[in-house]
Amino acid sequence: MPSHQSPELVDLFTTYTAGPGSIGSHLTRAAVEHGSADPLIVATSADFALYPGDGRPPTVEGFRFSTRGFKELAGVSHLGPAVATLVQLREKYADFGWRAEAERLLREVERSRAASSAELWRETIAVEAYRGREQAIADMVDYACAVTARYLRAALADESYLNSRTLREDYLEGGGPGVQLPVPVNQMMIATFFLTGLDVSHRILRWFTMQKIDWARAMVVIAGQQGRPTAGVTWNTSSVATMILGASEYQLPLERLYMAPHAPTFATPVNGDLTEVAALEEPLRRIWFNTRATVELGEMMFDGYPRYAPGQLTAPDVADPAVTEISEMPVIQGPDDWRALTTRLRMVLEDPRQLLSGCVTDFAVRQLVEAGNDPAKVVVPGLDGVTYPTDL
């Protein structure tokens, strides 16, 4: 022991706080045993696991890497940031490598445009939640590729054209002089983000419904990294939390949902092998109950003082043009609220807490819950009721 420490006082510290034999650990073990029959839901960056309790085997459902069409839609939705990156390379960094990257992007855009069709989306990618929308999706992809190729060709012919003004006026938003842009690319980006969230949420809501979970007793741990290292660590920034709350029809008390970015996670099971998933049940239950047991001390120790009451933060309303700064995702008034929807595109780029793919997942989940999880009854902003011309 270092000479500057008191062994007696350090032992007092470890008696309650440190080590498996401490009084605090005793409390955790008692809490785990008491709640051994309660259902535990664990979400990683790719899968959900349900531990029913009482030693019953877990069930796992993948939600990210098993998503049909995810990469195809992401490739299209990322066209906006890709073109903006070329502008940044040229304007801010004077990096002449932008030209080679523009030529490469143009080749891939043209290949993708030739490959996409309603048949591809209907018969090969074949996403259940997109049924009936395949032609509209194909038209959107064709249009997005066409206007991207047009912008890139103009930039390659005259590099002064590649600037932040033309990026916004001729490509992202429209409104520039002499350039036909029937549908802003911003709307296409929202539509692709929404479609991805619609598919994942539809499948996960259905899976949770099949599990017959008692949400009043359910324990939830969202474990490990979600998206970029700084993102998805709060209730309001986690699309996974959004899906779980929606699956409970918003009955799950927020105080039973813990974000645990440093908790252990399991790899996606291969060939149905749940060995690793099962092995993590005990440590994950211990994490939840260790947190919960400490929380419950507050009511006993400080009865009569104001209690902590978790709740969703009020979403700002950006309908007022005087609102120029926000710190939380703005409320979406409806599928045509393009100021709020586009503001969310900006926010997921600028706010390091946000998941890029979670831009409008909460809006998709809420619509699905209200529609009885029927994707056909949901309005996809930027797709439904929008005509993407295919003659550009």
Describe this structure in words.
The chain has 392 residues and is mainly alpha-helical. Helices cover 48% and strands 6% of the residues. The chain has 14 helices and five strands. Strands 3-2-1-4-5 form a five-stranded mixed beta sheet, sandwiched between helices. The model has no long low-confidence stretch (mean pLDDT 93).
Q: In summary, what is this structure?
A:
With 392 residues, the protein is mostly helical. 48% of the residues lie in helices and 6% in strands.
Keywords:
392 residues; mainly alpha; five-stranded mixed sheet; 14 helices; 5 strands; 48% helix
- In spatial order, strands of the major sheet run 3-2-1-4-5
Shape: elongated
Beta content comes to 5-15%
Order of helices and strands: HHEEEHHHHHHHEHEHHHH
pLDDT < 50 stretches: none
Which secondary-structure class do the elements indicate? mainly alpha
Q: What gap, in angstroms, lies between the N and C termini?
A: 76 Å
**Mean of the pLDDT scores?**
93
Which percent bin holds the helix content? Answer: 40-55%
C-alpha Rg (nearest Å): 25 Å
Number-wise, the strands total 5
Major β-sheet, in short? 5 strands, mixed
How many H/I helices? 14
